[in-house]
Amino acid sequence: MLVFYDFIQRNFNEIKDNVKQVLTNESEYNINNKEISSLISKQKDLKKVKKIYYEKDHLLKKPSSIKELYEKFKEEILKIDEKIVIKPTSLYIAFKINKNNFASIFIYIKKIDVCLSKLKENFNDPKDILEDIPETYRWGKICRFKCDSFENIPYAIKLIKQSYEIVITK
Predict the structure, then answer these.
(1) Cβ distance 18 to 11 under 8 Å?
(2) Burial class (CB in 10 A: 0-12, 13-18, 19+), 56
(3) Alpha-carbon torsion, ordered 132, 133, 135, 139, to 10 deg
(4) Rounded distance, CA 102 to CA 28, Å?
(5) CA 76 → CA 154, 158, 168, distances in Å?
(6) What local confidence, expressed as pLDDT, does residue 96 receive?
(7) What is the pLDDT of residue 4?
(8) pLDDT along the chain (170 residues), means of 10
(9) Which residues of 60-97 are buried (b: 16+ CB within 10 A; e: fewer)?
(10) Is residue 70 within 8 Å of residue 107, measured between CB atoms?
(11) What is the 3-state secondary structure (H, E, C) of the chain?
């Protein structure tokens, strides 16, 4: 054990001495303060680069039934208006009109959650499937519903169309 400790201590001291030598002999390594600050600024610039998300990022490792359910939602939503834009983010896939989300889809393994642009009270929802998202989430005043089967899509699209109408009449 003592031999191992001596080995570690010697190597640590050797590494420490090499680092000191590098720091004191900058010219030997052709490193100057301008180059160092340039490297630091490039590193900061790299941190500012935004990651681009795709729909496929949300569909990875999801069962085919959920992928098909999402594709059906997407197909029906895009029929509402040709100007609708799909904007995937890190957490959800947004459906936008005039730069405003009217529906956001969260894809899970067993279901899809759809968030709409206003509180539950703004919608005609006879089946009462909408629930307001708590203000503690700080997502704004929105509501959501869950969908796990194709049978629910026609009713869901009626709610999504209402959200679309609310957003375009702002």
Answers:
(1) no
(2) exposed
(3) -130
(4) 61
(5) 9, 10, 18
(6) 95
(7) 42
(8) 47 56 55 59 61 90 95 96 94 93 94 92 93 80 91 95 91
(9) eebeeebeebbeebbeebeebeeebeeebeeebbbbbb
(10) yes
(11) CHHHHHHHHHHHHHHHHHHHHHHHCHHHHCCCHHHHHHHHHHHHHHHHCCCCCCHHHHHCCCCHHHHHHHHHHHHHHHCCCCCCEEEECCCCEEEEECCEEEEEEEECCCCEEEEECCCHHHCCCCCCCCEECCHHHCCCCCEEEEECCHHHHHHHHHHHHHHHHHHHCC
Give me the torsion for CA of 31, 32, 37, 42, rounded to 10°: -30
pTM tops 0.90, yes or no = no
Cα separation, 157 vs 116, whole angstroms: 11
